[in-house]
From TrEMBL:
<feature type="transmembrane region" description="Helical">
    <location>
        <begin position="204"/>
        <end position="221"/>
    </location>
</feature>
<feature type="transmembrane region" description="Helical">
    <location>
        <begin position="44"/>
        <end position="62"/>
    </location>
</feature>
<keyword id="KW-0472">Membrane</keyword>
<feature type="domain" description="Major facilitator superfamily (MFS) profile">
    <location>
        <begin position="7"/>
        <end position="384"/>
    </location>
</feature>
<dbReference type="InterPro" id="IPR020846">
    <property type="entry name" value="MFS_dom"/>
</dbReference>
<dbReference type="InterPro" id="IPR050189">
    <property type="entry name" value="MFS_Efflux_Transporters"/>
</dbReference>
<feature type="transmembrane region" description="Helical">
    <location>
        <begin position="300"/>
        <end position="322"/>
    </location>
</feature>
<feature type="transmembrane region" description="Helical">
    <location>
        <begin position="360"/>
        <end position="379"/>
    </location>
</feature>
<dbReference type="Pfam" id="PF07690">
    <property type="entry name" value="MFS_1"/>
</dbReference>
<feature type="transmembrane region" description="Helical">
    <location>
        <begin position="99"/>
        <end position="125"/>
    </location>
</feature>
<feature type="transmembrane region" description="Helical">
    <location>
        <begin position="132"/>
        <end position="154"/>
    </location>
</feature>
<keyword id="KW-0812">Transmembrane</keyword>
<protein>
    <submittedName>
        <fullName>MFS transporter</fullName>
    </submittedName>
</protein>
<feature type="transmembrane region" description="Helical">
    <location>
        <begin position="273"/>
        <end position="294"/>
    </location>
</feature>
<keyword id="KW-1003">Cell membrane</keyword>
<dbReference type="GO" id="GO:0005886">
    <property type="term" value="C:plasma membrane"/>
</dbReference>
<dbReference type="GO" id="GO:0022857">
    <property type="term" value="F:transmembrane transporter activity"/>
</dbReference>
């Protein structure tokens, strides 16, 4: 078995590439793509939303495959699929091939983003995967920080087509070897019928799954909405464009800082505790902006970023802590279906709310955060061994 550090570094690096060249790509390339192809920027983002919907539909199948055969080959296949989809984007001569490229990338995201990486780690380490999950999110938390400047430079120097083709090559030259050669197979042995019955009965499986699915959908809706609109939202509070961008940039460091806190301190506690703290962080910050305005924006961004950083880890650690490693991949895929749909539509919904209500649009995200906190509190009280 390779060392845990090697596995975390390999998976974390591959995840940084996967996120940075797909999920974070439209922020840099949507406008030049649309301009050259003679379509609206909204058309490009709609194609990206299609990719997220495809990811939601195929995620459970990917997770089930990892449960039975380990994640190494699934992750390696994702590198190839990403390369094909990005090459299709780079060669697109119209909207049809653009949409087809994003559809293929959506298949790749179902195979190769966090859910698959978390499931792979659950197969390798079982219930002891929490630290490794935190480790790869620490590395991949820099995906936008690393890949946005690279995409921006490539686009400025060589154009958006060359940028897509460069990322396609990176998946074949870097992502594929990292996923295929440095990751062990890792499949957890099936529990006995008695052990599985005990786990399902203690957890109240159906209700617990429904509550977790709601928590993930609510928090991913907010996370994606803020990723798409945070600078504009801060300007609505009274900040200048430059100040809004500068403060919004604090999200990344806040996420990484919170993940370090999770790694060093919060691992001593059940992940429901850290998830509750993270879920309430955004509503507290949002209340400050709605009540005070611009002076509260820095605190809001730090709270939102910190909460979002821990919630990303919780999406992997909560199902593992509650249900155990057996069937984790399929369960993770099912839990993330509502979240992916919420993620696909949240930028449009929040854009309309900001148009009509300005910073008062935060009432929706704050309310979702409070409801997620309430659901997690209920789960904590029902969990075995928690007060």
């Amino acid at each position: 078995m390779p060392s845990r550090l090697r596995i975390v570094l390999a998976l974390g690096s591959a995840q940084t590439l996967a996120w940075g060249s797909t999920y974070y790509l439209p922020a840099i390339l949507a406008e030049p793509m649309a301009s050259e192809l003679g379509i609206s920027t909204g058309n490009v983002f709609a194609a990206f939303s299609l990719a997220l919907i495809v990811t939601a539909v195929l995620g459970p199948l990917s997770g089930k495959r990892i449960d039975h055969h380990g994640g190494r080959d699934v992750l390696a296949l994702s590198s190839v699929v990403f390369a094909v989809g990005l090459a299709m984007l780079g060669l697109a001569n119209g909207p049809l091939m653009l949409w087809a490229g994003w559809l293929v990338i959506g298949i790749g995201m179902a195979l190769g983003l966090y859910e698959s990486a978390f499931s792979t780690l659950a197969g390798i380490y079982g219930r002891n995967a929490r630290g490794a999950i935190t480790g790869i999110t620490l590395l991949a938390g820099f995906a936008s920080t690393v890949c946005w400047p690279i995409s921006g430079w490539l686009n400025a120097e060589f154009g958006w087509r060359a940028t897509c083709l460069t990322w396609a090559g990176a998946h074949l030259l870097l992502g594929l070897p990292l996923n295929r050669l440095l990751i062990p197979v890792g499949v957890q042995p099936a529990p006995s019928p008695a052990e599985q019955a005990q786990t399902d009965g203690r957890s109240g499986a159906g209700l617990t799954m429904a509550l977790l699915a709601f928590v993930f959908a609510a928090t991913w809706f907010t996370s994606t909405a803020m990723a798409a609109h945070l600078p504009r939202l801060l300007q609505e509070s009274g900040l200048s464009a430059a100040a809004a961008i500068g403060i919004a940039a604090l999200v990344g460091p806040a996420q990484v800082g919170a993940r370090c806190l999770e790694f060093v301190l919060l691992q001593r506690f059940h992940p429901l505790i850290s998830a509750r703290l993270a879920a309430i962080a955004h509503p507290i910050g949002a209340a400050g902006v709605m009540l005070v305005g611009a002076p509260a924006t820095t605190a809001f961004v730090l709270l939102h970023g910190g909460g979002n950083g821990i919630l990303t880890i919780a999406k992997g650690t909560l199902p593992l802590a509650i249900f155990g490693p057996h069937g984790y991949g399929l369960r993770q895929g099912l839990l993330m279906v509502p979240a992916r749909f919420a993620q696909a539509f949240s930028p449009l919904v929040f854009a309309l709310l900001i148009d009509d209500f300005g910073t008062r649009a935060l009432w929706l995200s704050a309310a979702l955060g409070v409801l997620a906190y309430a659901a997690l509190t209920f789960l904590q009280r029902r969990a075995h061994g928690l007060a």
